[in-house]
């Protein structure tokens, strides 16, 4: 029987072609992180990326992941 993961720490996340980040963009976090910025800077994008990586759905729980893809040419 495999042991269940009880806790984890996200130290970085790299996004590419995800929402506003067409090109590769990496966020480095510490054990305690505070994410701040003006509107449109990518705070929710970071939350959506983490949620999508672990749960397969955006942070706010939408069922479609279509809005997460960057479709700019």
Task: Describe how the helices and strands are arranged.
Layout lengths: L11 E4 L9 E4 L14 H13 L18
Antiparallel strand pairs: 1-2
Number of strands: 2
* Helix-strand pattern: EEH
Work out the radius of gyration: 14 Å
Q: Helical region count? A: 1
Q: What is the end-to-end distance? A: 47 Å
Spatially, the strands of the biggest sheet line up as 1-2
What amount of the residues lies in strands?
5-15%
Contiguous uncertain segments of 5+ residues: none
- Can you give the helix content as a percent range? 10-25%
Instruction: Give the biggest beta sheet.
Output: 2 strands, antiparallel
Shape: globular
Structural class: alpha+beta
Task: Report the average pLDDT across residues.
Answer: 83
């Amino acid at each position: 029987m495999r042991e269940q993961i009880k806790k984890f720490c996200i130290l970085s996340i790299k996004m590419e072609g995800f929402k506003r980040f067409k090109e590769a963009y990496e966020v480095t976090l510490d054990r305690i992180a505070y994410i701040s910025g003006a509107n449109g800077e990518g705070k929710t994008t970071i939350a959506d990326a983490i949620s999508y990586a672990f749960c397969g759905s955006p942070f706010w729980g939408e069922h479609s992941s279509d809005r997460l893809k960057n479709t700019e040419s």
